[in-house]
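HUMAN: Ready with one sample?

ASSISTANT:
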Amino acid sequence: MNHSQEPVVPSDTIARIFQLCSFTQDSTRITEDTITLTEKYIKLFVREAVLRSLENKDKVKKEDGKGSLIEGPVLHHTDLEEISGILLLDF
């Protein structure tokens, strides 16, 4: 995937998450600027999670001395779980 075709979280999804999880009153509204800023934050968070997971995976692989049979980086949910605690503290 090219950097120009990076996936994004749809604005409707972000607004719905706010509505369902954050707002306690039905009359609460969210501005388009807030949705745009949140979209950028989510994009940064996901990118950082992937990069840290790849870095941690390489570090563990070097410490174990095991090579990978698969060419290229492949992440599993366990790779994300290993870095999730410190990632959440940083954000």
Residues 4 and 43 are 14 Å apart (CA to CA). The mean pLDDT is 82. The radius of gyration is 17 Å.
